[in-house]
Design goal:
With 381 residues, the chain is mainly β. 12% of the residues lie in helices and 46% in strands.
Length: 381
């Protein structure tokens, strides 16, 4: 009985020794790093490496790499042998490196989506058993635009319908968001809209501006700005419909205009009763001040008001989008109290040169300041 027990113990010991000498396979390091569930996420076109560390490898045993993947045509799982020890079936796309005696490093060059799959490093123990470790490779692609299917900068007519298109691809498929620069609402009444196509209907002048398409996935996010121009007839705003000034003083009347295209000089005028003012002459100055974003300030300046100047004035403008001129009215009324210039913020007499008087006033202020300083110094002494 003792001999039988001894034999069993010895057998178990020898079996444990044999088992302890079986090869162990471990993928210890990868580039990019391994994420949860043994997944490697790599960008397309970059190299991927997996270091398979093997201990207790028998003399006649080989370290092998294989790839399992789902055939997109048949839907079946296929197995692709990659390497046997240092031998490769495809030595252009794959390579095996030996950074240490016990490490077999698989390198996938210029990884593509077609390289996705389950990569297994293994040593065959018996006909049916293996020592293995694996990693699942997923390939991602930064979002990128299809310029042939993305809207360029565009100009449309007021009242038109138009679709802004931002067509981006990537892996995973990117999300696409529309917004407007400056925080303005989209014409559909939202700050943000998600989708490839932003449908604009019955476009208005205030819909013009820069639209931003942001396309993003888990890899990266990018933006493209698309400028939408709108052709529209002049819209006139009058900041001061009633202006007052005393006889003998300067007065300015202004119309703020938005228009695209900009009205030509021959299509702009000021009217007072039967008189039309299109250019500067005598006591009347006609000024066109063009600004950004289709804006124009149209002014009539009377440098020395006379009693015959009182009454109604109209600024009249048209452009190629106008069926008829746009008109806004201003009334100039008399007063006994001289009013300051709205541009220079001070009262200016009719015989006074605004530029010269400004320089004199500034010079006088400097002289007065200097005199005050010198007096203060003298009293201190």
């Amino acid at each position: 009985m003792a001999k039988v027990l001894f034999s069993v113990v010895v057998g178990i010991f020898l079996l444990s020794v044999v088992k302890s000498q079986d090869p162990t396979v471990k993928i210890k390091q990868t580039d990019p790093d391994t994420k949860a569930h043994r997944v490697i996420v790599a960008e397309r076109d970059r190299d991927v490496t997996m270091d398979c560390y093997v201990e207790n490898l028998l003399d006649n045993a080989l370290v092998r790499w294989q790839r399992q993947y789902v055939d997109q045509m048949t839907g079946k799982t296929e197995t692709q042998p990659v390497a046997q020890d240092m031998a490769l079936l495809d030595n252009i796309h794959f390579s095996i490196e030996k950074p240490t005696q016990y490490t077999w490093r698989l390198r996938i060059r210029g990884t593509q989506v077609t390289d996705e799959g389950n990569y297994t490093c293994f040593v065959q123990l018996t006909q049916i058993t293996q020592a293995t470790d694996f990693r699942i490779l997923q390939v991602v692609i930064k979002p990128y635009l299809d310029p042939q299917q993305t809207s360029p900068d565009t100009t449309v007519d007021e009242g038109d319908n138009f679709d802004l298109v931002c067509n981006a691809s990537g892996r995973p498929a990117p999300s696409i968001f529309w917004s407007r620069l400056g925080g303005a609402l989209l014409p559909i009444g939202q700050e943000i809209y998600e989708g490839v196509i932003l449908k604009l209907r019955n476009i208005r002048a205030q819909d013009r501006g820069t639209y931003r398409c942001k396309y993003m996935n888990s890899v990266d996010e990018k933006t493209i700005d698309i400028v939408l121009g709108v052709r529209f007839p002049p819209y006139i705003t009058v900041p001061r419909p009633v202006v007052t000034q005393a006889v003998g003083y300067r007065v300015e009347m202004q119309c703020f205009v938005e228009a695209n295209p900009m009205p030509r000089e021959e299509d702009t005028a000021w009217l007072h009763e039967t008189t039309t003012y299109t250019m500067t002459s005598d006591r009347y100055q006609v000024n066109r001040i063009e600004g950004a974003f289709d804006r124009l300030t149209y002014e009539l300046v009377i440098t020395d008001v006379e009693s015959t100047d009182y009454g109604g004035y109209s600024c009249r403008l048209k452009n190629d989008m106008s069926a008829s001129p746009s008109i806004a009215k201003i009334t100039l009324q008399s007063t006994n109290v001289p009013q300051p210039s709205i541009k220079l913020n001070r009262v200016i007499k009719g015989n006074e040169n605004p530029e010269t008087s400004s320089s004199v006033t500034a010079y006088s202020a400097i002289v007065l300041s200097l005199v005050s300083f010198l007096l203060a110094v003298c009293f201190t002494w």
